[in-house]
């Protein structure tokens, strides 16, 4: 088996879900495996940096795969091989600096199934490191409908993953790929959601100045801000990022109007609550979207990059 093929490390029961984690030496994903002994998901570890596949943490994962500049580029090359072995119903793509409660990832997949979500993510815990407020937990919801899911921990239904796979190489830094998803899905019936019932702790803030990934990008002459601007100029307006007015699965058995008002009230106070608990925000601010025409979408972005 060559290095472009997934390397199986254990035999798994028939599981319908896959966690694909981009892992360095200090990756936190071994906790996910150890704390969910009856998990309903397989795990594929994609190593980066100087970590060889056989040295990767989390040896009990079903698959190990080295390579790729980022997790989306790596997954794109692996997708058809994995799906040929098992047609996973959902794929969750995690960074390696995320902490979940024991068994939470299995519960997350259950919510995705029950709500028939197309694109979702676990909520960012209040007081954690976040990029966008819309992705931070709202305590009034179990599942909250939104118009934006970010690249940190997106989960795709099988059908939507096939459709969005070409976007995975829109940018090398991964900035803006999630904006493209929102643009492409803005006028569809696909359900985008934050699963507030499953919050995750993001343990590291974005470090564009000293982080090893961004150091590598600089060495390659890649400017994340330029790549992000390219996506903005290529895809139709869809923003601003927001929680939708309806379609949520509420946490408490209150009258619908009360629940809806509570969701919006917590959204309005979320920034102060998040920062008050020691949280951080590092937004990649979307470009102004009023009167901004479409410039070719996916094809236009690739033409500009070329």
Task: Describe the 3D structure.
The structure is a single chain. This protein is of the alpha/beta class and 306 residues long. It has one domain: Spore Coat Polysaccharide Biosynthesis Protein SpsA, Chain A. It has 9 helices and 13 strands. The chain has helices at residues 29-34, 71-85, 104-115, 158-164, 177-185, 212-219, 224-234, 256-276, 297-305, and strands at residues 7-8, 17-23, 41-47, 63-66, 90-94, 98-99, 119-124, 129-130, 141-145, 155-157, 192-202, 249-250, 280-281. The strands form 2 sheets. Strands 1, 2, 3, 4, 5, 6, 7, 9, 10, 11 and 12 form an 11-stranded mixed beta sheet that branches. A two-stranded parallel sheet has the order 8-13. Helix 7 packs antiparallel against helix 9. The longest helix has 21 residues, at 256-276. It is globular.
What is the residue-mean pLDDT, rounded to a whole number? 87
Number of strands: 13
The helix-and-strand class reads alpha/beta
Number of helices: 9
**Amount of beta strand:** 15-25%
Alpha-carbon Rg, integer = 19 Å
Order of helices and strands: EEHEEHEEHEEEEHHEHHEHEH
Classified by CATH, the class is Alpha Beta
Low-confidence stretches: 1-11
């Amino acid at each position: 088996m060559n290095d472009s093929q997934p390397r199986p490390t254990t035999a798994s029961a028939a599981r319908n879900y896959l966690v694909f984690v981009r892992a360095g030496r200090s990756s936190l994903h071994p906790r996910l495996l150890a704390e969910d002994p009856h998990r309903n998901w397989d795990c594929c570890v994609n190593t980066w940096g100087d970590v060889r596949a056989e040295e990767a943490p989390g040896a009990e994962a079903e698959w190990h795969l080295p390579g790729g500049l980022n997790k989306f580029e790596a997954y794109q090359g692996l997708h058809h091989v994995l799906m040929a072995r098992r047609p996973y119903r959902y794929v969750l793509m995690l960074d390696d600096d995320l902490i979940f409660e024991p068994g939470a990832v299995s519960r997350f997949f259950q919510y995705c199934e029950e709500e028939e979500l197309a694109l979702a993510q676990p909520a960012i815990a209040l007081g954690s490191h976040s990029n966008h407020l819309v992705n931070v937990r709202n305590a009034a919801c179990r599942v909250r409908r939104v118009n934006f899911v970010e690249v940190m921990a997106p989960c795709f239904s099988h059908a939507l993953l096939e459709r969005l796979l070409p976007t995975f190489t829109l940018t090398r830094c991964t900035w803006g790929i999630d904006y493209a998803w929102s643009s492409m899905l803005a006028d569809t019936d696909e359900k985008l959601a934050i699963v507030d019932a499953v919050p995750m702790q993001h343990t590291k803030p974005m470090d564009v100045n000293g982080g090893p990934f961004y150091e590598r990008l600089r060495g390659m002459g890649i400017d994340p801000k330029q790549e992000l601007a390219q996506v903005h100029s290529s895809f139709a307006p869809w923003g601003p990022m927001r929680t939708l007015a309806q379609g949520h699965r509420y946490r408490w058995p209150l009258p619908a109007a009360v629940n809806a008002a509570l969701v919006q009230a917590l959204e309005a106070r979320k920034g102060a609550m998040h920062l008050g608990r020691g949280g951080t925000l590092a937004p990649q601010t979307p470009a102004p979207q009023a009167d901004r025409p479409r410039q070719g979408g996916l094809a236009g972005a690739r033409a500009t990059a070329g």
